[in-house]
Design goal:
The protein folds into two domains: about 1-150 and about 310-325, Triger factor/SurA peptide-binding fold (Orthogonal Bundle), CATH 1.10.4030; about 175-285, Chitinase A, domain 3. The chain is α+β, with helices and mostly antiparallel strands. The two termini are about 30 Å apart. It has 13 helices and seven strands.
């Protein structure tokens, strides 16, 4: 029934296009039709839609080594998914308002230690798009999140499932071959877009707080609560979990120094793309297996994520099957 209704609505769109085409010069009608790549339910995907989304997708770090065909497929898939969800979201009265987009932009700015629109625009430009295109993509993502959140399985994994996963993956995932550290940190965010003086201020602040902890003027936990800019770890006493030596992005000299420090010690201030930080070594494992009790919460999150992704895929499959999707091959055979 949904497919029938979608076809009827698409028929109305095609009829409207036909009426427009009748009053246009032949060359103008051909240009209009050639800009339509796909019909999706009661909407269309145009050449401009595709080009804007392609510009965003090609800058995805996960696709940095992908060829143009792979990027094109991902861009078109994202657009079709957005059109499908928008169609069903409208029927349920779900909308993304301008203030929702603005609120998400503010959250992104805070998370990246960006203080003004100029810095934000520079960050967006580094992704190869302008702010308007970025906001369109952001609106699409928010709509997908809002619509699909009520349709996926959020049942948490059981303790038995967590234990089973650990036992099945113990040899492959949890055997210690290089030193593994249980760490907490105090993070001071920095960005390449910030001015030299701004980066210098972050450096000075990090060094000052580090010295206060070293001198006993602040406890490590107080430093986390008052100064750390990692909101995720901040609620867990600065803990960032277990990290293998090669995951720390430290120099060989810094790693050698880290390995010599005792449990409970505070490291010097280090620098990375995320900013400046210093660690507290909560524990270190050199041989054997990472204990189950330490990994249990990580496994719980992993299994929950896998469950959500599977449920999302199933929900999207049902929506695809209920939708009218037609490539406009007779007009413009897009090559991936």
């Amino acid at each position: 029934m949904e497919v029938i209704m979608a076809k009827l609505r698409m028929g109305i769109i095609i009829l409207r296009l036909a009426l427009v085409i009748l009053v246009l010069p032949l060359w103008a009608a051909e240009v209009l039709l050639e800009k339509i790549y796909y019909y999706v339910n009661d909407d269309v995907i145009t050449k401009l839609d595709f080009e804007e989304t392609y510009a965003i997708v090609k800058n995805d770090p996960a696709l940095k080594d992908a060829d143009s065909k792979t990027i094109s497929n991902k861009a078109m898939s994202d657009l079709i998914t957005e059109r499908i969800i928008n169609y069903y979201a409208k029927s349920e009265g779900i909308r993304i308002r301008p203030e929702d987009v603005e609120s998400e932009i503010n959250r992104i700015m805070i998370a990246n230690n960006i203080t003004d629109n100029q810095q934000f625009d520079a960050m967006v430009a580094a992704q190869g798009v302008d702010r308007s295109t970025f906001e369109k993509q952001l609106k699409r993502n928010l709509l997908i999140q809002r619509y699909i959140s009520g349709k996926i399985n959020l049942t948490p994994p059981s303790d038995a499932e967590i234990r089973e996963y650990y036992n099945e993956n113990k040899e492959f995932r949890y055997k210690i071959t290089t030193p593994v550290y249980d760490l907490a940190w105090v993070l001071f965010k920095n960005t390449d877009q910030a001015s030299f003086s701004a980066r210098r201020k972050v450096q000075n602040r990090a060094e000052k707080v580090f010295q206060q902890v070293q001198m006993g003027e602040l406890t490590f936990l107080e430093a986390v609560e008052k100064y750390s800019e990692d909101e995720v770890s901040k609620v867990n006493e600065g803990s960032i979990g277990l990290k293998k030596s090669e995951e720390l992005s430290l120099t060989a000299e810094a790693l050698s120094e880290l390995h010599k420090l005792e449990i409970g010690a505070i490291t010097p201030v280090y620098s990375s793309k995320k900013g400046l930080f210093f660690y507290k070594i909560k524990d270190r494992f050199n041989t054997g297996y990472i204990p189950f009790d330490i990994e249990a919460e990580n496994i719980r999150r992993l299994l929950a994520l896998q469950r959500r992704e599977k449920s999302f895929g199933q929900a999207m499959q049902r929506l695809y099957e209920s939708s009218y999707i037609k490539e406009n091959v007779d007009i413009f055979d897009i090559k991936f």
